[in-house]
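>> received
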Amino acid sequence: MAKTRISISLDQVQAERIRQHAERAGMDVSAYLVHAATRQMVESDAIEEQFAEVDALIARAEQAADGVPADPAQEPAAELTEQERREVEEALGLAHGRDRHGHRPGNAA
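>> returned
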């Protein structure tokens, strides 16, 4: 397989640390850097794969939000019906750990 040369620039302290780590690993500097970069690429690929569904979900949400005005004050606010208001209050209560009657589980009514 043909080899390609890549030139990098780094300060003397970084260069010396890399040389020391390569020596401890029993590798030359070039092999050590290739190994380190390959490990990083494998890790990055695994992370991207693991979060691909979340990234796709975010992209769909952002695309759907494109039609929503940035400043809600520009749009007239729709009034909630009494039923909608109760449903919102109930959902908020559940989110804050209250049951349908406004009590926290384990607390006396």
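>> The chain has a mean pLDDT of 83.
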